[in-house]
């Protein structure tokens, strides 16, 4: 694997097909601000109240620190396997395999969630267009919901299967549309607050930005775990490094540009929603459990009036766009794992016409569809629970990847001030913070009241999802070890590449 992870390795992907702007657009698409905020604002506000902006900023900090580590690793080893490849090089095949599994688990969780949000807003849009309120209720019909979800999943899979050129063209339009509508929504909400016509009408206060005002560390960790979810997805720009112009430098620049753009947008929207809706547990207050899974569906009408359908379209396009671009990451991770022998060889197949990981893309779609179908039948609160479990998975694999950067570049920590910051301090702080949040959230999620309150045998469904997925990863890993031990028995090259300044 030491040879295969060199920067000139080619797996057959379409090299040079994405530039800096295209990578940032795909990164923002994968984060999906309209969809993400609609699903996360309610649960995050329920956990931390008016300290929502503070938690958004706190969640941004480890993302930025981890992104520095990702940038360094990508400069040394631009490889579509990202977490899997890098952690294998740093810690060996066993840790590398589980790191890759964490990434795959997170993307499978979010793909199912994206499809669920898309279904809700699709039928809401139909009801708004036709004036027939009963159409919106079709999203609650389990068989119809699942069927519609599978249709969306198949469409997104088809676009991803056709490669990065098709992906890029779709994303330019959908990302621009959702950002314009979100800013329109925020301005409208601020106008309502200023005119005294907002439901909550809270005045923005400095204390909202104080993370130390959160009442408990458990609430703080839960809030950060959820805020990690809202930033998750920027690392897709690293998984397309083999298809990017300047594969060793452009993805790192795109990651940082994406994160900074998103935090500004989130602060604008988050403050608008919090000040407009307030924290009441009645009506459209953010503590009303009936609206927390889908805040924008409840706020669109009161904020935007007859133009509410634009917000529905924005969230629908956001979730559909992210559903499509999110396929990029698991498909290329599966491709790398197949390429290096960590999974069966069919996962390494490249479609010769589109130069895309065809088999891996279809496999990701099938697994995500099966997971969503199962979860929708088991829990009516599937969206909330998968969001919370997703935050746990993201903390896990981001944290492991950041520490891989620290260890891989261990011989260069003190060679310069810049090297100390980029190869040690930043990724170490980011990785440790995220792993602490992962452990705290895992412990807290055992409580049946955590998340939506769904449980199985007295244990919270969020914990069962998170722990069950990691346990399943161990089972699959040992099964693969028994089938093909060559990957797990090889000695990995541990000598780092030249120091990156």
TrEMBL record:
Major subcellular site: membrane
Membrane-spanning parts: 12-34, 54-73, 94-124, 144-161, 173-192, 212-234, 254-276, 296-316, 358-375, 387-409, 421-439, 459-482
Gene3D superfamilies named among the record's database cross-references: Amino acid/polyamine transporter I
Keyword match Cell membrane: yes
Keywords, in A-Z order: Cell membrane, Membrane, Transmembrane, Transmembrane helix
UniProt cross-references to InterPro entries, sorted A to Z: AA/rel_permease1 (IPR002293), APC_superfamily (IPR050367)
Protein name, as recorded: APC family permease
Species this chain originates from: Kocuria gwangalliensis
């Amino acid at each position: 694997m030491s040879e295969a992870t060199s920067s000139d390795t080619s797996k057959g992907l379409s090299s040079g097909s994405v530039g800096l702007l295209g990578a940032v657009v795909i990164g923002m698409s994968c984060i999906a601000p309209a969809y993400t905020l609609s699903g996360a604002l309610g649960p995050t506000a329920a956990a931390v109240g008016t300290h929502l902006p503070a938690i958004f900023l706190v969640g941004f900090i480890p993302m930025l620190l981890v992104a520095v580590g990702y940038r360094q690793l990508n400069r040394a080893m631009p490889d579509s396997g990202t977490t899997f490849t890098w952690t294998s090089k740093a810690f060996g095949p066993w840790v590398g395999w589980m790191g890759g599994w964490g990434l795959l688990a997170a993307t499978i969780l979010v793909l199912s969630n994206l499809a669920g949000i898309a279904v809700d807003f699709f039928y809401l849009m139909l009801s708004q267009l036709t004036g027939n309120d009963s159409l919106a209720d079709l999203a609650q019909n389990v068989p119809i919901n699942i069927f519609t979800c599978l249709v969306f999943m198949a469409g997104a899979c088809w676009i991803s299967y056709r490669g990065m050129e098709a992906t890029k063209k779709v994303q330019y339009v959908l990302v621009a549309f959702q950002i314009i509508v979100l800013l329109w929504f925020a301005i409208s909400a601020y106008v309502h607050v200023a005119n005294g016509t907002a439901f909550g009408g809270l005045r923005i206060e400095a204390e909202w930005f104080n993370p130390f005002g959160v009442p408990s560390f458990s609430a703080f960790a839960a809030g950060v775990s959820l805020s990690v979810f809202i930033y998750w997805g920027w690392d897709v720009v690293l998984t397309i490094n083999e298809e990017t112009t300047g594969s060793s430098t452009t993805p790192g620049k795109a990651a940082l540009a994406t994160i900074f753009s998103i935090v500004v947008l989130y602060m604008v929207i988050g403050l608008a929603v919090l000040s407009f809706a307030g924290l009441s547990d009645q009506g459209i207050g953010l503590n009303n459990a009936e609206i927390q899974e889908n805040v924008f569906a409840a706020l669109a009408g009161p904020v935007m009036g007859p133009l509410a359908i634009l917000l529905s379209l924005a969230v629908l396009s956001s979730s559909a766009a992210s559903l499509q671009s999110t396929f990029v990451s698991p498909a290329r991770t599966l491709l790398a794992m197949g390429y290096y022998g960590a999974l069966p060889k069919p996962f390494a197949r490249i479609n010769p016409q589109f130069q895309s990981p065809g088999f891996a893309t279809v496999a990701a779609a099938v697994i995500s569809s099966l997971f969503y179908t199962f979860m929708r039948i088991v829990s009516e609160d599937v969206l909330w629970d998968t969001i919370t479990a997703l935050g746990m998975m993201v903390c896990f694999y981001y944290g492991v990847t950041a520490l891989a950067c620290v260890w891989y570049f261990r011989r260069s920590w003190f060679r310069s001030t810049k090297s100390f910051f980029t190869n040690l301090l930043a990724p170490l702080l980011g990785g440790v913070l995220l792993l602490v949040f992962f452990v705290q959230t895992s412990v807290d999620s055992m409580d049946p009241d955590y998340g939506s309150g769904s449980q199985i045998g007295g244990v919270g469904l969020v914990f069962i999802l998170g722990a069950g997925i990691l346990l399943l990863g161990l089972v699959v890993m040992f099964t693969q070890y028994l089938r093909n031990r060559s990957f797990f028995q090889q000695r990995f090259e541990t000598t780092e590449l030249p120091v990156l300044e």
